[in-house]
Write a structure and sequence with these properties.
By secondary structure, the chain is α+β, with helices and mostly antiparallel strands. 54% of the residues lie in helices and 8% in strands. The chain has a 4-stranded mixed sheet, covered by helices on one side. The longest helix is centred in the middle third of the chain and has 30 residues.
């Protein structure tokens, strides 16, 4: 049995839900409302001392001790190890490293302007939003996403080639928010726009 502690709008939570869907795993969701500070509640901190969503509890067998995992990247690697079919990591060490590098890039660099847009549109009243900060974050997103535009230059359908991978799953929430918050990806980065359409058409995204 799998229980995911998450917040629906969290990019990192969405990343894990996409992987769960790609692997066809059923799970129970436990809402942690970060807008109310529930991630700092003692009972949640007992699961994740970092006080961040998501966190996962896995009961591999009824009598076995539960496995508690947190941090979206580590959760997804755990899911790959525990449920290897279908595989989401490429078979070669070089491509597996590339997948991890892309995920790390998304988590540490792309998340910054996406986070600004998220804060402006989700947690800031419309009358108090900063048009300058929003425009700057949109431009920063475009500059960062040029890396993916170059990566997709050989007409590959997915970031690492013909097969969907953990790298595509990790980037999907960021692209979803970029589209939602008005980043002109299709106009300025058409290859990224076409790749994102493929991601949106996958059952895991629709779920």
């Amino acid at each position: 049995m799998l229980t995911l502690f998450d917040y629906p709008a969290s990019p990192n939570s969405r990343k894990v839900r996409i992987v769960l869907a790609e692997k066809g795993l059923s799970f129970t969701r436990q809402l942690i409302d970060i807008s109310k500070g529930e991630q700092r509640a003692p009972e949640f901190l007992a699961l994740n001392p970092q006080g961040k969503v998501p966190a996962l509890i896995h009961h591999p067998q009824p009598a076995a001790s539960p496995v508690v995992v947190y941090d979206s990247t580590i959760i997804n690697e755990y899911l790959e190890d525990a449920f290897p079919t279908p595989p989401l990591f490429p078979p070669s060490p070089a491509l597996r490293a590339q997948a991890r590098l892309l995920e790390d890039w998304a988590d540490n660099l792309l998340i910054e302007p996406i986070g600004v847009l998220f804060a402006q549109y989700v947690f800031t009243a419309e009358s108090r939003r900063s048009s300058a900060r929003i425009e700057d974050a949109r431009l920063r997103c475009v500059e960062l996403l040029r890396r993916l535009h170059e990566l997709l230059a050989d007409s590959r359908p997915y970031l690492l080639g013909d097969d969907y991978s953990i790298a595509d799953a990790a980037l999907t929430p960021h692209l979803a928010y970029a589209e939602q918050f008005g980043v002109p990806v299709p106009e300025l980065l058409p290859r990224v726009g076409e790749w994102y359409v493929r991601l949106k058409n996958r059952p895991s995204f629709l779920a």
